[in-house]
Amino acid sequence: MEQEAAETARESLELVFRMSNILDTGLDRHTLSVLIALCDLGLNPEALAAVVKELRQESGNNHGSRLR
Amino acid sequence: MKKGEERVMEEEDDQQKAADLVHELVLRLLSQNPQTPTPDPTSPSFLKTLRYAHRILRSRLTPSVSPDASAIAESLKRRLATHGRSSDALAFADLYAKFSSKTGPGSVNNKWSLLYLLRIVSEDRQSAVTGLDSSLLLPNLNLGDEPVSSSSSSLGRNKKSNNGVLLVSKDPENLRDVAFREYASLIKEESEVTEEVLVRDVLYACQGIDGKYVKFNSEIDGYAVVDYVKVPRGTRTMVRMLSELGWLFKKVKSFVSESMDRFPGEHVGTVGQAFCAALQDELSDYYKLLAVLEAQGMNPIPLVSESATSSCYLSLRRLSVWFAEPMVKMRLMAVLVDKCKVLRGGAMAGAIHLHAQHGDPLVHEFMMSLLRCVCSPLFEMVRSWVLEGELEDTFGEFFVVGQPVKVDLLWREGYKLHHGMLPSFISPSLAQRILRTGKSINFLRVCCDDHGWAGAASEAAAASGTTTRRGGLGYGETDALEHLVAEAAKRIDKHLLDVLYTRYKFKEHCLAIKRYLLLGQGDFVQYLMDIVGPKLSEPANNISSFELAGFLEAAIRASNAQYDDRDMLDRLKVKMMPHGSGDRGWDVFSLEYEARAPLDTVFTESVLSKYLRVFNFLWKLKRVEHALIGIWKTMKPNCITSNSFAKLQASVKLQLLSALRRCQVLWNEMNHFVTNFQYYIMFEVLEVSWCNFSKEMEAAKDLDDLLAAHEKYLNFIVGKSLLGEQSQTIRKSLFVLFELILRFRSHADRLYEGIYELQIRTKEPGRERNKTQESSSWINEGRKAITQRAGEFLQSMSQDMDSIAKEYTTSLDAFLSLLPLQQSVDLKFLFFRLDFTEFYSRLHSKGKES
């Protein structure tokens, strides 16, 4: 059971990662997993998006086309 | 916000977890910075960033869009597709499908928010990469409670200002933004009610229910925003316009429910019911639309390009677009409902049909589908009427109306077209054909006791491609209907005529009538005249019709008529007309022909009375002819008479001869007239019209044709025989002539009787003493006296003869002068025939000159 859940979680993360790549969000797997967890906790996705954007800008105007 | 904070505090566990996650997130994001690859989690700058992140997260606790993962996925996919990345769009759709199918433990619970997050992040990056300043685009005008949120680039511009608190920029670059905001607040001030509420109220109003602010106002007869609420005038007008739909809906709805309520008791009729059902169908479509609008109305518009807020899906303007089509339909229905309130049946269908003649394809199509429903009962009636002859019309809606009549009137009066119920898409000629076909079936069934029509009907149905089942026809298939009617009419009419001709021997009966009533059978008439003549000279009340019937039977047996069909001879009857005191047998005697069903449809009473008139006329003519022949028999010059004259005195002899001569001349003249007149009647009237009638009888396609042909035949005879209305004067003069001829006959008879007496007297004087008073007086006075008596007698006779001749000449002159005035050409020929030596015309002109 536990194993199955982990499997599903892994697959979901993979799917989300691929979707995110198609959408060109520039987020890596780790960041995505953190975001998924935060979303599941019920945080406002708009706010999360704002955080992502702000912190990226904070850390220099590198828009991470290299980040892939 | 405070409330949100408290709630967060309560869920401390979650809170702790979230804080850890945020910490991790900040760490991850910062670590991506190439300048500070490994940030120090304890450094003040890191803590500051963390605080900043927390502040941002706290600032918006609820998302501004409704949670709908699939809508977001759809919009993402569409955006990819419009950006020319269709393969990516497909891949994305595929991934999303897999993603959304993952459920249960370990899967992502909050799918939509994750997707939403991805979308915003992606959009942010995109706009940052392309450097697109979306503040140059029109921001969404928001009338909602939230202030207009800043666009993404203004966020970027304001990042230096106090710790990331999102402030709307007020720099001059953003003037347009400011203007829009001001406008929005202006509108908000003006209206106390938000648009969503009004939209909901309009949706209610469209179902005929009063909303909170939009209520039915009986003064203006419509829905409107109540007066005490302040809304801009434009909105007020818009609401009124939109809620017209509600007014129309109420009208249609009330009609439908009223009709349904009334149905079993009062006569709404099947067409009315069909109409109601069709309306009900349309209304349920309308309900569906309203339900969808209501459900979707409160959802926000899934926006693609604008990040934060979007207003509710339905605005009054959007509603007006949605309502455009239902409004057209509802208006039409309301108009129809108004029109049809008082109408029923075919009239209703016709009225609706008039509205279907519309150029707009939407209206046209709508009306067609409506009419198809409405007309189906009507077409069903036509079908069963044409193929089965049944009038299934309990509510009096069909354009054929049946009346209970006697069997012999069934064809002529049993069924009528009801023009009020004839819908205009059925042409009058088609209606006539429909009427006749069903009538033919009923006629066959009731009058002819025939069942062969069923085969003809099913044959017709097969030929026209429809089945004899129900519901084969519909509105708009007028061609098919016409075809069906034509096929059915052709076969059934043919069958009907076949039955009439072969089984009921229509033709033979007509011939029999011609032979006996129109005196076509010469020997029979001659014999009848011979034996019945003496009897008819008696006063009418001395004659019994049984006696005459005996004479008739004798005449039949003595003539060739005996070989005729017994059935027909049995129908020939003597008829005594009602007579007054002075009438003689000649005036009341006539023959009649008894018509039985179904032929009494053709030979109705009025037709038979016409035949009777013709018969009486011909009989009179025949009698005159007979009289003339009778005189000829007695006055034929022979040696007996001429011998006996030799013994007379010269003066008496001269007198006698001149009287005889005058008599002969007059007889000749009369005979010339009567012979020619009879020739005219027999050969130019009766035979010609019979010939035409036979031809038309062959060509007749249906019973109406046959009736018309017979009518024509009879009218032709009546008209040509000078029995018509317009030949009254000439008929009178003709009868005067007949009268004179008959008078001449009795005078001639007396003359010859006298001559005969004289002969006896001169041969055997004094032998017969007890003769008549006259002759005995002659005896008494002796031979001389006899001569004197004879002279006197002859003188008075010749005087009478002179007066008759004179009267006859003037009457004939009058008759001949009337002849050319008649309209018919044939009478002119008669005139030529009578006046072939121009004797009369010369006499006439001479008389005029003198």
Automatic annotation (TrEMBL), chain A:
Any Pfam family: MOZART1
UniProt keyword Cytoplasm present: yes
Q: Which domain of life is it from?
A: Eukaryota
The UniProt record lists the keyword Nucleotide-binding: no
Q: Name one GO biological process term.
A: gamma-tubulin complex localization
Provide the alphabetized UniProt keywords: Cytoplasm, Cytoskeleton
State a GO cellular component annotated for this protein. Answer: gamma-tubulin ring complex
- Compartments reported by the entry: Cytoplasm, Cytoskeleton, Microtubule organizing center
**What family, per the record?**
Belongs to the MOZART1 family.
Listed name of the protein: Mitotic-spindle organizing protein 1A-like
Originating species = Raphanus sativus
The organism's lineage is: Eukaryota, Viridiplantae, Streptophyta, Embryophyta, Tracheophyta
Automatic annotation (TrEMBL), chain B:
Q: Which GO terms describe its biological process?
A: cytoplasmic microtubule organization; meiotic cell cycle; microtubule nucleation; mitotic cell cycle; spindle assembly
MF terms (GO), sorted A to Z:
gamma-tubulin binding; microtubule minus-end binding
- Predominant location: cytoplasm
Q: Please state where this protein is localized.
A: Cytoplasm, Cytoskeleton
Q: Which GO terms describe its cellular component?
A: gamma-tubulin complex; microtubule; spindle pole
The answer on whether this UniProt entry bears the keyword Cytoplasm reads yes
Which Gene3D superfamilies would you find in this protein's record? Gamma-tubulin complex, C-terminal domain
Q: Which Pfam families match?
A: GCP_C_terminal (PF04130), GCP_N_terminal (PF17681)
The answer, when asked if Cytoplasm is one of the entry's keywords, is yes
Provide the alphabetized UniProt keywords: Cytoplasm, Cytoskeleton, Microtubule
The parts of the chain that form a coiled coil are none
Classification via InterPro entries: GCP (IPR007259), GCP_C (IPR040457), GCP_C_sf (IPR042241), GCP_N (IPR041470)
Where do the Gamma tubulin complex component C-terminal domain residues begin and end? Answer: 508-840
Query: What does the similarity note say?
Result: Belongs to the TUBGCP family.
Question: What name has this protein been given in UniProt?
Answer: Gamma-tubulin complex component 3
